[in-house]
Amino acid sequence: MQRIATPIVVVSDGGPGLRKALKKVWRTAKLQRCIVHAVWQVHRYTTRRPKTLAGIMLKDLASDLYNVKTQEDAKIWIQRLFNWRVTFKEFLSEMTRDSNDNLRATHERLLKAYNSLVVLINTETMFRYLDETLVLDKECPRTNNPIEGGVNAQLRRLLRYHRGMSVEKRIKAVFWWCYLHSPRPLSAKEILKVMPTDASISKIYSSMNERAQLQGIIPTWGDAISWGDLHNYDKLSFNDWD
């Protein structure tokens, strides 16, 4: 992230790692929660076909987020959300004893769905795209779907078409695709300086695997190699790149 200029707004699917990274690297960047992911999270709690009136209304209310286009729309939507909580206050207060004889909210999933929306409102990440103080060249995005469909989907397709490649070569294929599809890619000569080889990837993985085994944790492909390990320009500190 340090190699990229600080953006004005970052659209996130809600992963906690990005929020921490923003505070550390892009401190002035504003955060917008992807509206699509926010709606999906509510639908996971309510299910696609909720059976209670409260669930049906909350699911529909979340879906109405797609129709919020102005600050006035946002105010009306927020008021509708709080009205939902008041309307079903008694219903949501019902308690049930679980298998361990502990009291728990009977409609715990609905409360989690509601709270997930309230958190976005309180952190001002729900309607950041409506912030008139942002100076942007174009309309502020409210979803990261273009990344999912334009980049991630193509990477998944690339790996699916080349399932026969070794893990090392699959990792290198992703690197090449990302470099060659960036707005201002490095030259082939510069890319080769930082591009990992099959041997270097295996060595990094083996080293981290041995270290993790000492800690009682065995990593798997995909979570054992960090971005920094595969992008190192200092030949004195790491000289295994070809």
Automatic annotation (TrEMBL):
<keyword id="KW-0233">DNA recombination</keyword>
<protein>
    <submittedName>
        <fullName>Transposase, Mutator family</fullName>
    </submittedName>
</protein>
<dbReference type="GO" id="GO:0003677">
    <property type="term" value="F:DNA binding"/>
</dbReference>
<keyword id="KW-0815">Transposition</keyword>
<dbReference type="InterPro" id="IPR048004">
    <property type="entry name" value="IS1249_transpos"/>
</dbReference>
<dbReference type="Pfam" id="PF00872">
    <property type="entry name" value="Transposase_mut"/>
</dbReference>
<dbReference type="GO" id="GO:0006313">
    <property type="term" value="P:DNA transposition"/>
</dbReference>
<dbReference type="GO" id="GO:0004803">
    <property type="term" value="F:transposase activity"/>
</dbReference>
<dbReference type="InterPro" id="IPR001207">
    <property type="entry name" value="Transposase_mutator"/>
</dbReference>
<comment type="function">
    <text>Required for the transposition of the insertion element.</text>
</comment>
<comment type="similarity">
    <text>Belongs to the transposase mutator family.</text>
</comment>
<keyword id="KW-0238">DNA-binding</keyword>
